[in-house]
Amino acid sequence: MISVTFPFLAVLALAALAYAAGLARARAVAGGDVRSLVALPKHHALNAALATLLPGLGVMLTWLLAIRVTETSGSTVLVPGSALTFPAVIIGAALLGGALALMRITDQFRARIAAERWIIGLLIAASTIAILTTLGIVLSLLAETISFFSSYSWTDFFLSLVWQPNFRGDSQLGILPLIWGTLYISFLALLFAVPVGLFAAIYLSEYAGPRLRAVAKPVIELLAGIPTIVYGLFALVTVGPLLRDVIARPTGLGDSASSVLTAALVMAIMLIPFVSSLSDDIINAVPQSMRDGSYGLGATQSETIRKVVLPAALPGIVGAVLLAASRAIGETMIVVLGAGAAARLSLNPFEAMTTITVKIVSQLTGDTDFNSPETLVAFALGLTLFVITLGLNILALYIVRRYREQYE
Q1: pTM over 0.85
Q2: CA atoms of 12 and 340, how far apart (whole Å)
Q3: Which domains does the chain have, with CATH numbers?
Q4: Which residue of 20, 163, 267, 381 is most buried, as measured by CB atoms within 10 A?
Q5: Average of pLDDT values for 67-89?
Q6: How far is residue 336's CA from residue 354's CA, in Å, rounded to a whole number?
Q7: At CA 61, angle to CA 58 and CA 63, rounded to 5?
């Protein structure tokens, strides 16, 4: 196992030394008159630091990737080398980049442009890493999903109404009950969260004063920072027993504290800041001139909001709702503790149900054979969930871009 701590710290230290050396050399070239330089000394120093830092980090990441590929494929072509050559190559790349940058410092060298090119390269690399990470997630899920469907019928997976996994070879792995539970809980959560979040956004943006808004908006947004496990405990200890004792038992609809409605209500509380914060920003982006024009025609404030502000902000609001929906579909801990783990098709909101994410966790938990269909089904579930959430995000982006109104 090769440690990256020492070479990483060494590259950072060399970058700091390169900055100081670049600053000193630029001032020496200027001869006391900075105006003789095309670029300021700080630009020369920044270019030297970046020329030291980025090559070193690039070599380190490439080397670590080669190690990972070697370990995964078992190939002997990509040999990472010993624990001594690893930091030596990284430090050597950093020193070479810094030395070349320092040698290029002259009174006519445009160091600012060179530094901006390094920064552009860094931004491109960051974007590439994000894209490659997404691609890696999809490929890893796809590979295991193909392995799953090689041992289990895809028609039984997508069309069966029964989810009964076991490790005796006669599992029934129908995804339809899980999709129903996922969509049912998410729909009820959005049914509570969207009106409350939207009304809160309208009040904060159109009615609340500056002092109240400065306090209320951060307080609402604090809900988004609470860990989902805390929401799950709140559903398990407080909301579930309350709904059972007040509504479910007296009406004969259920006798369990774990239910769809329990998870939906608590999830709605978590989703409120997503809807309200995004909708508030969208509503505030509507030009004040449109409101003033409506008032000038004799409309009241409520009529202006209904007939002018909300129609103008509707694409952004719909996008916020769809993004909140994708967040709800991917939730796990609230469903585990609030809705239970029963895979069933039912319309009774006081019965226990489960979602795709919960079963992904349960199928990969414990001492199980990784190559069995009962374990590999988690990857098929994950890929299905990925496609659903990706579709919602694409739909949200399409709506925002298609119906967005731009104002001068």
Answers
A1: no
A2: 49
A3: 5-149 (no CATH), 164-403 (1.10.3720.10)
A4: 267
A5: 62
A6: 7
A7: 105
